[in-house]
Amino acid sequence: MKREMGPNQMKIDALPARASLTAGQIVLGNIDYDERATMRAWEDFLADEQKCARDPVHPSHVRSLIHDSWYRSVTGGINAQGIEAPLSSDRDEIEYLTRANAELLSAARRSFASLGQLLQGTGAMLVLADSDGVLIDAIGDKKTLHDGMDIHLGIGGKWNEDAVGTNGIGTALWTGEPTFVHAAEHFCAGIKSWTCAGAPIRDPLDGKIIGVVDLSGYSPIFRPHNTALVAATARQIEKALAEQQQEQRTRLLEAFISSAPSYRRKDGLVIVDHRGRAIFCNNVPNGDTTDMMDGPMEPGRGRWLMNLPASGSDADLAKALPAHLRSCHVTPLKLDGDLRGAALVFPSVPIVSSAMTISREGNKHLQTAAEMIVGESEKLLAAIDVASRVARSNGVTSLLIEGETGVGKELFARLVHAGSRRTENDPFVAMNCGAITKELFGSELFGHVAGAFTGASREGKPGVFEMANGGVLSLDEIGELPLEIQPFLLRVLEERVVHRIGDSRGRPVDVRLVASTNRDLKQEVAAGRFRSDLYYRIGAVSIQVPALRERGDDVLLLIEHFNRRIAALAGNEPLGFSNDALDALLAYRWPGNVRELKNLVERLHILARGSTIELQDLPGEIGAGNRNDIAMHSNHPAAMLEAPVCTFEDAERQAIKNALTAENGNLSKVALRLGISRPTLYRKLGQYGIRRGFL
Questions:
Q1: Do 179 and 215 meet the contact criterion of CB atoms below 8 Å apart?
Q2: Measuring CA to CA, how many Å separate 581 from each of 58, 80, 247, 485, 626?
Q3: Distance between CA atoms of 220 and 12, rounded to whole angstroms?
Q4: What is the per-residue pLDDT across 497-535, written as a single tens digit (0 to 9) for each?
Q5: Which of 7, 138, 166 is nearest to 78 (CA)?
Q6: What's the whole-model pTM score?
Q7: What are the Sigma-54 factor interaction domain coordinates in residue numbering (predicted)?
Q8: Which residues pair with 273 in a beta bridge?
Q9: Can you tell me the distance from the alpha carbon of 293 to that of 242, in angstroms, rounded to the nearest whole number?
C-alpha cells in the first residue's frame, strides 16, 4: 500500500506495521503511533495549553516524555509555528566551537568516519552536538544533509529545548537518556516531517553530559532500533574519550616527574587537567582538601578544583587556587608548549607537639571567621589582615576597631577571638556600652559582691571581665563609656586584675580586649570626653573598617551572599537583579552600611512581586539617581534613533562583553550583574565565543 506524503504524513509501507493497525499508525517502541491523533493532540494542547499543563493525564497516544517536553516548550516561549532552529554562521564562533570541543570531535572522529559512508543513500544523517545542543559535526546522506539546512540542522544550528522545543537532541539533553522524537511529536510545526533519535555523551571522568549524537532524517527512516544505534555510538565515543584522557593523564604525570625533582613520596599530590579537574590523587591529606575526598574511582578524582589561568604563570596559578588549597605548592604542566594542567603538592606533615596542633586548629578557626567577612576590596582585605595578625600574636592584649555604624565591627572582634582560641571553650563576651545606664557601668564591667549597693544581687555577680576570662571581651561603642569609669578600666588593663564593687580582693583575669566605636576617639580626647591614656592603651593597634560606599563592587558580593542565604533559609530560589537595579545599588551611598544592605535584601524577599528585582522595586532613595538618568535619556529620542538596530543575539553578546569589561572579568560579578547563574554565563560565553581574556 502506497500513499503520497503530505508535510505531516509518512509512507506506510516504509515501516513495519501490524495488520491490526489502521492507516496512519505505526509501532514506536512499545506504543502505537498515530500521526493524525498526535497532530490533534498537539493542536488541542496549543489551543488550551494551561488546561493541558494542569492535567497530569496525557493522551494515551502521546508519550508522557513528549507531553512533558511540549509543556516545557510552551512555558519556555517557543514558537510552535517555528520552521527552523537558531543558526550561527559566524566563522569566529564556529572556530571557537571547534576549539572548545576539540576533545569531543577527536573522540567521535573514528565512529563518524566508519558510519558516514554507510549512511549514503539511506536518507539519514548523523550529527554531533555539544553540551548546549549546538551542532559541531554532521555526516551522512548528501541529500539529507542538504535538506537539513532548510531547518538549520547543520553545523552552528542550536537544537536544545530552550531554542527549538521538543526534538531528539534537546530532549536527550534534558532527560539525560537516549531518546527518539518522531514526526508530529516535535513541538515546532516546521520540523514535524523529520524523525530523530539522540543519545547523550558523558565525560568518563566526572559523568557530566558533554554532547549528544543524533540520527536524523525524514520520517520514513524511522526504525525502533535507531535509538539503540545512537546509544551504541555514544558509548564508542565515551570509550575513545576515556582513552584520550588516560593518555593525557600519563603525559601530565611524566611532565610533573620531569619538572619536580624535589617531590617526596610522602608528599600529597594532585594532578589537575586543563579544566582544573583532579585526574590523579596520591596521599591527599584530610582537612583542607576534604571537599575532594568523596569522588568516584579514587579519592577526589574527577572533582573540579580550580580554573587554570590562560597565562600559566606561577603567580597566576597561585592566585587561581581556592582558599582551602592555598597551603599547597602549585606547578604548571605544559604539553607541546601549551598549558594542559597543573600539579598541586601538599608537603608531608611531620609529627607535631600538642601546642602546634592547637595553633593549627586556631588557624583553621581564624580562616573560617575570616570567610564570614564578605568582600574583596583592598581596604577591607587590609583590615582583615591586621585583625588576623593581632589574633595570631600573643603580645597584643587590646585592639581598637573604628568604623561607622553597620560596617560589621563585631565580625572583626569574632575574628580575633577565633584566632586567639586555645581551647574550644574559650569565651567570647560582648557588651554594648551604649545600652548600659551610667549607674550600672561599674557593676556590668567589674561585677559586685552581695549588698554592695541598693539593688545589688544577693549572691553577688561577676562582671564581663570575669566572664571573658581566658577569652575575648568585646566592648562595642566604647566612646559611650562614662569619663569617671575610664580610670578603673585602664587600671584593669594595666594590672590584669579586677576588683568587684564592694570587694577588696583582686581577681586575676586573662582577657584580650577588643574595643570598637563609631566615633572619632581622637576628637573625643581633644574635647575632653575620653581619657588620652586610655585611648593610647586600647589604640596601640587599631583597625579602620571601611564604609560600604568605599568598598566598590563588594556591594555586589554582599547582595549575592545575603540573597542566597535568605533564600536558602526560606526554601526559595534567589532573586535576580536587573542591570538598572544593580547600577542603582552600586551608586547608592549606604549610610547604614552592610546592616542596611542586609535589611534591604530581606525586605525585597518579602515584598518583591516577581523573581527579578527591577529599578522600580527599590526604595525611592536608592533608585532615584538611576531613574533620573533613564528619564534624561528618554527625553532625547533622537539619540535613541541613532542607535544601530541589532539582533537579540547581538545585543546579548554585547551585554555580556560590557559586563565583563565593567567587572574586569570577574565571572561571579558578571553573572550577578546580568541576573543569570554562573553555569548559564559559561554557556553564553561558549555560545558567543567570548573569552575572559578578550579585554
A1: no
A2: 42, 34, 49, 48, 8
A3: 8
A4: 998 888 878 889 888 999 999 999 999 999 999 999 999
A5: 166
A6: 0.47
A7: 373-606
A8: 341
A9: 22
